[in-house]
Design brief:
This protein is about 55% helix and about 15% strand. The chain is an alpha+beta fold. The protein folds into three domains: about 80 residues, Rna Polymerase Sigma Factor, Chain: A; about 60 residues, Winged helix-like DNA-binding domain superfamily/Winged helix DNA-binding domain (Arc Repressor Mutant, subunit A), CATH 1.10.10.10; about 120 residues, Nuclear Transport Factor 2, Chain: A (Roll). It has a seven-stranded mixed sheet, with helices on both faces. The protein is globular, with a radius of gyration of 21 Å.
């Protein structure tokens, strides 16, 4: 490959990078793993060159998807048993504050609830669903990646679609209404009002955490929320309203530093799902300091 060809390929790849990272994020649910997959794809592309490639974007998407499929298969072979470790990474921003790359990352409203469901699929089902239903790749191009016929690949996507539809909680679309419900949740927690907390929670609410086991049921989640409020009651705690994967959420600051990210799914005016991120390593890689600075909270 000549220097001019290499330069051209680098420029075209960088143009495609946000889209490729969006594919990898949906496939893997992890921001650093998505970045690694894109870099791995670049190494493969730079060695192979792009001579004779007519649809460069589709070709690059295929390479990234293959890298992600390998990563998912390796993950399946060594399942992590630590509570919450496989929770998807949230994308956090201020309301109206997404940069263009993160807008691409979250196109098609890739909420946390969807990513959680995607993580229950087999690697082949996830690839077929993500590439076809989210990125419109034809099954004829997806089939060779999973080593199946076109018909079998279509069936993979169909099974995945049914799983997603069956597990997905129908979320309220109005961001302002979501915020009202979440504000009521935090207000009840600050006041220690157990009954008010239960009222704002769906009876079958689920609380997921990257440090603790899942909790289910309004009373159990309400008790946990009150316990958390009591534990932080003597410290300088600020709850910063943010958007988490397109829905209203909260960034909790302790002494001005990120302490937790909470993502909420509000359905029919009540909180149906809460995703809590407190793992320090995860928080450190989410770019939260930039969000805090932009909010003027420092």
């Amino acid at each position: 490959m000549t220097a001019d060809q290499q330069r051209w390929l680098i420029e075209r790849f960088e143009e495609q990078r946000p889209q490729l990272k969006a594919v990898a994020y949906r496939m893997l649910g992890s921001l650093p793993e998505a970045e690694e997959a894109v870099q791995d794809a670049w190494l493969r592309v730079s060695r192979a060159g792009a001579d004779g490639i007519e649809n460069l974007g589709g070709w690059l998407t295929t390479i990234v998807a293959r890298v992600c499929l390998n990563a998912l298969q390796a993950r399946k072979a060594r399942p992590e048993r630590t509570a919450g470790l496989r929770m998807p990474d949230p994308v956090v921003s201020l309301e109206g504050g997404l940069d263009p790359e993160r807008e691409t990352l979250l196109a098609d409203s890739v909420g946390l609830a969807l990513l959680v469901v995607l993580d229950t699929l087999s690697p082949a089902e996830r690839l077929a669903f993500v590439l076809h239903d989210m990125f419109d790749l034809p099954f004829e191009e997806i089939a060779p990646m999973v080593g199946r016929s076109t018909t079998a690949t279509r069936q993979l996507a169909s099974r995945a679609r049914r799983r997603v539809k069956g597990a997905a909680v129908p979320a309220d679309a109005d961001l302002a209404r979501q915020r009202e419900v979440i504000d009521a949740f935090f207000a009840a927690g600050r006041l220690g009002d157990f009954d008010a907390l239960v009222r704002v929670l769906d009876p079958n609410v689920v609380r997921r955490s990257d440090l603790h086991r899942d909790q289910r049921g309004a009373q159990k989640v309400a008790r946990s929320a009150l316990g958390g409020a009591r534990r932080t009651g003597t410290t300088a705690v600020t709850v910063l309203p943010v958007v988490v994967n397109g829905s209203a959420g909260a960034l909790v600051l302790r002494d001005g530093r990120p302490f937790a990210v909470l993502g909420f799914t509000v359905s029919n005016g009540r909180i149906a799902e809460i995703d809590v991120f407190q793992d320090p390593e995860r928080l450190a890689r989410l770019g939260l300091d930039r969000v805090v600075r932009s909010s003027g909270s420092t």
